[in-house]
Specification:
The protein is of the alpha/beta class. The protein has a single domain, classed as P-loop containing nucleotide triphosphate hydrolases (Rossmann fold), CATH 3.40.50.300. 54% of the residues lie in helices and 12% in strands. It contains 8 helices and 5 strands, in the order βαβααβααβααβα. It has helices at residues 25-38, 53-63, 73-98, 108-118, 123-134, 149-162, 175-191, 204-219; strands at residues 13-18, 43-47, 101-105, 141-146, 195-199. It has a 5-stranded parallel beta sheet, sandwiched between helices. The longest helix is centred in the middle third of the chain and has 26 residues, at 73-98. The radius of gyration is 17 Å and the shape is globular. Thymidine-5'-diphosphate (TYD) is lined by residues 21, 48-49, 80, 105-106, 110-111, 114-115, 156, 170. Thymidine-5'-diphosphate binds at residues 21, 48-49, 80, 105-106, 110-111, 114-115, 156, 170.
Length: 223
């Protein structure tokens, strides 16, 4: 069994779920929560951008499709990190200090993929902000749910139609943008050992077996 990396500063564990649109992050976070609770863990489920009242207000501005003026890429980057600073301070760090398991739908890898690879903002600027904002808070493990764009975006648009949702500012980007985002995630997964890459185009049970395998390794339970 591989020995999982741990965030030794904290009693709790921090797991992030990443991937493009419609790859099934929410369903798999729900599965991971139930599995961890059945194994005696206290779990906090949260999301980015958002997770606190202030950060959810920033999320609304970030996702809102129509603004009176176009949002500058740098503004978008700083807003994502402003929301993250609040989220870490109010939710993530206190939970990890208590010893809880934090499951977060997106985190800084999304910033690298969307604002870095997608928008083309310099990765070293993002890294400087990451250090400033995160300090010692970083994921112990990141599950990257990856699927070809045709699979993920098809699911995302079906879901939006079923729920009568408006397309948000990111969802209205073109395919080339999402290709770059996917490339960014895959580049991160290839060089950071904390990543587990999961093929999200497989049937849900197979994806969930992969999620469960990772959780088993983290809590040290044999299958
Ligand atoms: P999310 O609610 O996870 O969208 P979806 O359910 O469609 O996957 O995330 C909202 C959007 O915010 C998503 O399009 C990606 C974007 N985002 C960034 O651009 N940068 C970031 O750092 C984060 C956390 C999200």
């Amino acid at each position: 069994m591989s020995s999982p990396q741990t965030n030794s500063r904290f009693k709790g564990r921090f797991i992030t779920f990443e991937g493009g649109e419609g790859v099934g992050k929410s369903t798999n976070i729900g599965f991971a929560k139930d599995w961890l609770e059945a194994h005696g863990k206290t779990v906090v489920v949260t999301r980015e951008p958002g997770g606190t009242p202030i950060a959810e207000k920033i999320r609304n501005d970030l996702l809102k499709a129509h603004h009176e003026e176009p949002m500058a890429d740098l503004t978008e980057l700083l807003l994502v990190f402003a929301a993250r600073a609040q989220h870490i301070e109010s939710v993530i760090r206190p939970a990890l200090e208590r010893g809880d398991w934090v499951l977060c739908d997106r985190f800084t890898d999304s910033t690298i993929a969307y604002q870095g690879y997608g928008r083309g903002l310099p990765l070293e600027q993002i890294d400087a902000l990451r250090k400033l904002v995160q300090q010692h808070v970083s994921p112990d493990c990141t599950l990257l749910l990856d699927a070809p764009l045709t699979v993920g975006m098809g699911r995302a648009s079906r879901r939006a139609a079923e729920n009568n949702e408006q397309t948000d500012r990111f969802e209205s980007e073109d395919l080339a943008f999402f290709e770059k985002v996917r490339e960014g995630f895959l580049a991160l997964a290839a060089c950071e050992p904390r990543f587990t890459l999961i093929d999200a185009s497989q049937p849900l049970e197979v994806v969930q077996q992969a999620v469960e395998q990772q959780l088993r390794e983290m809590i040290g339970v044999q299958s």
